[in-house]
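Annex B. Sample input.
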Amino acid sequence: MVEQASVGVPFWILSVIVLVSGFMVVSLKNIFHCALFLIFCLTGVAGIFVLLNAEFLAAAQVLIYVGAVCTLMIFAIMLTSNMTSKKIIQTNHNAMVAFFGCMIFTVSVVAMLWITTRDGIWHMATELLPENNVLVIGQLLMTKFVVPFEVVSIVLLAAMIGAIVLARGEKA
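Annex B, continued. Sample output.
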């Protein structure tokens, strides 16, 4: 019982951080503020990974998404738009429609969770995680999932080439 309480409080704190910052990402109109709240959201997800004893995923989340992607987004925002001269109004005229849409979504998710948990579909994992998660992930990526791993690398290469072509524009 003490172990559940020691994990429960940080989980709820991180969950609130992720949900509030995720809501701020989609509701704010200033794209720079959205990028900052995205960093908070992704960092909270990394914290949840740590609570799940998935340290490798937490490190990858912080290094790749927070460290690389969000930093690149912030640099792109700062270099492409003049943020200092713009007055951005933070109000939304469709707030009631968004509120009712969120309420319908929330009720739907709660109903689905209630239906799936009342029949006992979800069970706690009984086996322990392997000692070296990184070794297991590496072995799976290079044996069982080698084809999807290579397909993802080709897709990322194509995306990088496409981004370079778009960035160069008609200058070349």
